[in-house]
Design brief:
The protein is α+β, with helices and mostly antiparallel strands and 182 residues long. It folds into 2 domains: 42 residues, no CATH class; 103 residues, Immunoglobulin-like (Sandwich), CATH 2.60.40. It has 4 helices and 8 strands; from the N terminus they run H-H-H-H-E-E-E-E-E-E-E-E. Helix 1 crosses helix 3.
Amino acid sequence: MIKGVLRYGVATLLAVLSAGGTAAERASVNIEEHRESVAPLIEHGGLVKTTKPTPTPTPTPTRTPAPTTATTATQGTLVRAVFAKQIVKREPVDEVTTLSSDMQGVYFFTELEDMAGHTVKHVWEYDGRRVGYTEFKVTAAHWRAWSYRKTPPGTSSTWKVKVLNTAGEVIGEKLLAPKAAP
């Protein structure tokens, strides 16, 4: 076993030394002395003189220009904003257009584009007063998020939800008013 390993070890050494280049040309290696250990390489074309490959220049990376305005960099896009009774499989179900007195709560669903890496807030207002907010960390270019608020019994005031981006800019808002009295 060791003899076979040494034979291929010598053959590999000879192949490297005879593979071209200035150092290999000056080395005094007599392949005939090692014919037995080099034979498998000669038969399979292993002792072929090769040249060193010339390195290819690496292309210089191009830079994309920075956005020209701050609103382009931070604005983002609000694709959809919907009030709904529930969310199923990340989609709003039973869209709510007016608030009825028998509702116990309402979801606010948003679909966002181009806001990966940013934070988005749903700021809830009831009757003109801020009553809370929900913050979301957006981790993809296309993102859906929703928040929920309980509605007071016998609600007769308007709900408003503002959608804010990382810079605190309002990128959308939606109102939910109670049903008009008959």
